[in-house]
Amino acid sequence: MDTIKLNNGVEMPQLGYGVFQVAPDEVERCVADALSMGYRMIDTAQAYQNEEGVGRAIRKSGVPREDVFVVDKIWMSNYEGDAPARSIDESLRKLGTDYIDLILLHQPYGNRYNAYRALEDALKAGKVRAIGVSNFYPDHLIDFCHFMDIVPAVNQVETHVFFQQVESRKYMDELGVRHMSWGPLAEGKNVFFTNETLAAIGAKHGKTGPQVALRYLLQRGVIVIPKSVHKERMAQNLQLFDFTLTDAEMVEILKLDTTQPVIMPSHHDPEITKWFMGFAPRG
């Protein structure tokens, strides 16, 4: 498994297993399957409400804890006062672990400065090994890197062949922040699974279109966390390291970029901002 070195020297797998929208009563089985197949990075979040199942699967797997890279995220309702610190302790309890490898702010709204300072404190206390952000656009990220003491190690944003984040990536690279994708399979939107360009390139390599799409992101240095609840799909999503896309094929896939989000509207859209405010009401 290829790894990515973060800006604090910590190395994380470039390919992992995501558990967004995996039901709490199903996640233990899914994570157990993923670990048995060779996945060594699991991405969860407080908002997914499945941390406990993730923790149980890791403990029962027989894989040493130090060999599993756990990513978690603080939800925006836990950004005020001492709530971020308390929520980190609660996530540690639910996961049944003494530390989290990487913890992110899940959204760029609310009292994000207060919440991130709690992440900095948790890093210094040894409760986490690396800290970062999620869904931060370049203006959010530039602002953060100017005011925070510790530059985020990772920015996890919607990234797939239809929304490749080319411009945002320039700023991440400039700031030393690693690019991590959520939704690398575009959640099947834009007829992703039958895309002719991906299928044609895949046929040349004996691979599926989705495998080509994931390989493309890997070759661009993006960290990916594809999700599936089916063992055969989990296995396919791991089989990405026995072929390499040519420069010409990379150019063809670049042409699929619409430069616009496909899964979720822009976090600069006033309506999506209003929608998120419903998850963290004041008072």
From TrEMBL:
Family: Belongs to the aldo/keto reductase family.
The protein's name: Aldo/keto reductase
InterPro entries: AKR, Aldo/ket_reductase_CS, NAD(P)_OxRdtase_dom_sf, NADP_OxRdtase_dom
UniProt superkingdom: Bacteria
Keywords noted in UniProt: NADP, Oxidoreductase
Chain ranges of the NADP-dependent oxidoreductase domain: 21-256
